[in-house]
Amino acid sequence: MVVPAKTTRARLGYTTAIHKELTSLPPPKEPIVVAVYKFRDQTGQYKTTATGGMSWSTAVSQGATTMLLKALEDSKWFMTLEREGLSNLLNERRIIRQTREQYLGEGGEQLPTLPPLLYAGITLEGGIISYETNTITGGYGAKYFGLGGSAQFRRDEVTIYLRAVSTKNGRILKTVHTTKSILSRMVDVGFYRYVRINRLLEIESGFSHNEPVNMCVMEAIEKAIYSLIIEGILDNLWELQNPDDVKSPLVQHYLKEKEEAKGFVQFDEEGNLIPIPDGYTAVGVVKRRLGFGLNGGEQYYLGDYNDPRFRPTGALLVRYGMNPWFSFVLSGGIGKLADKENFEALIVHADLKAVVTLLPMKRLTPYFFMGASMLNFWPEDEEGNEIERERTRGNYWGWKPAVVGGVGLEYFISGNWSTTLSMDHYFTFTDALDGIVRGSWDDHLFGVRLGFNYYLNR
Question: What number of other Cβ atoms are within 10 A of residue 204's Cβ?
């Protein structure tokens, strides 16, 4: 990580992720004359401090009107009129009129009067109506023998509403709204160890990254204008220079995005929308219906030997969802266990687990599971010979019961495919996994797995 130790020169303004789409829209038949009096912060929220209190600074920018005017200008669809500083403009025009009335031109003629101000056919109203903090928080970390690290994240959300109003009769022509997430991340690592008696070594490092709230507000505003332009085209409020541009990729992409937000993302071969059946989510995934998957990773044995090793494992699974939050998984797998020198075992398992999904309507969701398992194992000594049963004090080979539990993350790549990253722990009821029975504790298994799932449409 490079520490920023020097100041930087001023640079050109930030370009948002939606800016290119906004400026690439098909051109209008003629620019729309609009006026914006005030696009206000309507959240009423103040910025929180690191200690959990409140400061007198507002949570979001008070310059949203300026952002909106800049986005309108960049879109090339609107001719914007000055209204926020209207009193200043009128004062200046009054000064000009008075000056022209009192003084004559170079030839002694009366100076011409000022032309009238332009008036707008449409005014834009609305504002920042919501700023939600800590909509999602979380993190992960690990420490071992004084060395460790952690990562934390937090997500906030800002919501924009924008409406177009006809100045002719006051009718609201169209209202759109957009939401932008604001992500904050922090990563730190540290080392803490006594290197000698009364000599403590401690090393810490880390960094944090916070998305600028102003830039997120700007992106939400640009997205709102982008939506307003396309909605106006579809409702014949304004016209394209080339009517065939309504079939352009940007417009079609917007239509698909809009239907996704409504919960309709399935399209037939002709491009017609198909309603999502029960069990689908807003991202078009059959998250809690019938699905199939496989996973693989490494597992670690904890038992009577003190030098265990990670060994590969894999499994196939079938999943059936009762509802978007709760499902059952039937799986079967095979893997290995090993100590550095004393034994290596082949182990198979069959599991029935109940899975609880915490955020079923999101593409990325955490989940946890618990269930019952049956294990069968065949330990061998360092020479590859099967360990004699007498060494296990009656714990014969065969199917043994166990309890399995764990946590994971699932990310939906597309409408039917997802990938998972999970950690599991098998609580066994036998001490013979390693071919030896010693002490009063049963053997345990820990695993880390990466998986892929496919969910059927029906």
Answer: 10
Angle at 376 between CA 370 and CA 378, to 5 degrees: 140
Residues constituting the chain = 458
User: Which of 173, 158, 160 has its CA nearest to residue 34?
Assistant: 173
Q: Token digits for 81?
A: 């009129």
For the whole model, what pTM was predicted?
A: 0.61
- pLDDT at position 28, please? 92
Nearest-angstrom CA–CA distance, 136 and 356: 18
Q: Which CATH superfamily is domain 19-83+120-262 in?
A: ABC-type transport auxiliary lipoprotein component (3.40.50.10610)
**Residue 317 confidence (pLDDT):** 94
What distance in Å separates the CA atoms of residue 360 and residue 76, rounded to the nearest whole number? 40
442 to each of 191, 241, 376, 400, 430, how far by Cα in Å?
33, 76, 15, 12, 5
- Token representation of residue 169: 């009769």
DSSP 213-275: HHHHHHHHHHHHHHHHHHHHHHTTSS-BSSGGGGGSHHHHHHHHHHHHHHT--EE-TTS-EEP
What topology is assigned to 291-455 in CATH?
Porin (2.40.160)
Q: Cβ–Cβ contacts within 10 Å for residue 53, how many? A: 8
pLDDT at 63 over 60: yes
What are the CA-CA distances from residue 288 to residues 141, 186, 292, 370, 387 (Å)? Answer: 30, 33, 11, 17, 44
Domain with CATH 2.40.160.20 in the chain: 291-455
